[in-house]
Amino acid sequence: MVRPSRPQLPYASSRSAPPDTPTRRSLLRGGLALGAAAGAVAAGQLWGGAGGAHAAGVDYPGATWAPASPANYTASDRPSTYPIDLVVIHVTQETFADTISLFQDPAHAATAHYVVRSADGAVDQCVREHDVAWHAGNWDYNTRSIGIEHEGWVDDPSYFTDAMYHASALLTGAICDTYGIPKDREHIIGHVEVPGTDHTDPGPNWDWPRYLRLLNGG
Fold it and tell me: What separation in angstroms does the CA of 39 have from each of 18, 19, 129?
């Protein structure tokens, strides 16, 4: 579950594992994360900040490609292999930049398809939609969904800006249109609603009525 006293990116692997410990977190903050970053630079894949060059293969035209480590998701061919009928809304419990860095760390064992920045609504895509991101903590839900992370903390509504809501609603709307997903609360859910989860995001400060209005042109 989210622990406000020690903010961390909610664990979202496709397999069972304990939450991050302080030792692992310090590794992520230190040499391990730097090692992953160095490897990404060598591969010419390191995220260079939202607003950088867009990859030709990006699924959402408004997104910047910020590839996660292949160790943190399952390559697939959705919707041929699995139908896509859900969008799962997350809150990072991290900054935008740190979230991207964690997704690029091959030891992190979690990632989402997209991350939305608080200040300006910039969108980075980390995993292609046809692949299975490890974001829900439930394999069935991972296979069926697109995961969208939002920069911020569940107990701080100031992160949920107008720019973030509008950008996220446009992104989710485009995903729904692509896969024929109804734009309602049965198909657009919070991480807290995934069976078996111990997470609370997006939390009580996420304005679901507003989000659904934006999704449906309100």
Answer: 26, 25, 24
Tokens linked to 143? 């296979």
pLDDT at 5: 27
C-alpha span between 218 and 214 (Å, rounded) = 5
Confidence (pTM): 0.78
Task: Give the Cα-Cα-Cα angle 10, 118, 194 (nearest 5 degrees).
Answer: 30
- Could you tell me which residue, 8 or 205, shows the higher pLDDT? 205
Mean pLDDT for all residues in the chain: 81
10 Å Cβ neighbour count for 15? 8
- Confirm if 38 and 129 have CB atoms less than 8 A apart: no
CB 60 within 8 A of CB 137: no
